Amino acid sequence: MSQTARDPTADFSPLAGYFAFYATSMDACFVGEHQVVPQPGNFYGGWVTDNLRGQIKGAPGTEQW
Asked: How does pLDDT run along the chain (65 residues), one tens digit per residue?
C-alpha cells in the first residue's frame, strides 16, 4: 500500500507528489543497503532499519512519550 499527498496543507507542501509506502505491505523495502522492518506497535505505519540507535516509539510502554 502506498499513499501520496496530492494537495497537502501549507505546512506539508514540500511533500506534494512524494509517495509513502507501508513496509508491512511490501515483500521487502530498503534504505540503501538496510532492509526496513515495520515500526513496533500497531498505531504507526512507519518503519525502522538496523542502523538506528536508541528507543523506537511504538512498542508497548512507549505510548506516552
From this structure: 556 677 788 998 898 888 877 787 888 989 999 999 888 876 667 888 999 888 888 888 887 77
> In whole angstroms, what is the distance from residue 5 CA to residue 23 CA?
18
| Residue 5 to residue 18: CA distance in whole angstroms | 7
Q: At 59, is the secondary structure helix, strand, or coil?
A: strand
Nearest-angstrom CA–CA distance, 57 and 53: 12
Residue carrying the nine cell digits 499513499: 3
| Cα-only R_g, the chain | 14
Nearest to 43 by CA among 24, 28, 59: 59
